[in-house]
């Protein structure tokens, strides 16, 4: 049976099953062993994206390079909110639409 924290596509959900710091460490191992080139996040809250970036920066690990967030004409806040814009700009984090 598959791990409940992993989807069929191999994406890992952060939350009850895995903490952000552990995920950052695991992604760095995969990058250093050549299994990944970069990593990004999908529909994470902005606070977790910032936490991942801070953990990676402080520990010298590879930070996420992109974030794909829920975004539409009716719901622009996740990408265009002041906190998100400042984090993306300061950390040179790309937004995938």
Structural notes for this entry:
The protein is mainly α and 97 residues long. Helices cover 42% and strands 9% of the residues. It has four helices and three strands; from the N terminus they run αβαβααβ. The protein has helices at 20-32, 46-59, 77-80, 82-91; strands at 40-42, 66-68, 94-96. Strands 1-2-3 form a three-stranded parallel β-sheet, with no helix packed on it. Strand 1 (40-42), helix 2 (46-59) and strand 2 (66-68) form a beta-alpha-beta unit. It is globular. The termini are far apart.
Mean pLDDT: 83
**Radius of gyration, rounded?**
14 Å
N-to-C terminal Cα separation, in Å? Answer: 33 Å
Strand order of the largest sheet: 1-2-3
From N to C, what is the helix and strand string?
HEHEHHE
Beta-strand proportion: 5-15%
Can you tell me the overall shape?
globular
Main sheet summary: 3 strands, parallel
Number of strands: 3
How much helical structure, as a percent, in the residues?
Answer: 40-55%
- The computed structural class is mainly alpha
């Amino acid at each position: 049976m598959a791990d409940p924290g992993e989807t069929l596509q191999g994406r890992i959900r952060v939350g009850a099953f895995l903490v952000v710091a552990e995920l950052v460490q695991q992604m760095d191992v995969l990058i250093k062993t050549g299994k990944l080139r970069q990593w990004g996040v999908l529909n994470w809250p902005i606070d977790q994206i910032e936490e991942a970036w801070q953990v990676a920066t402080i520990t010298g690990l590879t930070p996420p390079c992109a974030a794909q967030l829920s975004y539409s004409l009716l719901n622009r806040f996740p990408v265009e909110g002041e906190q998100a814009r400042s984090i993306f700009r300061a950390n040179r984090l790309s937004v995938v639409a």
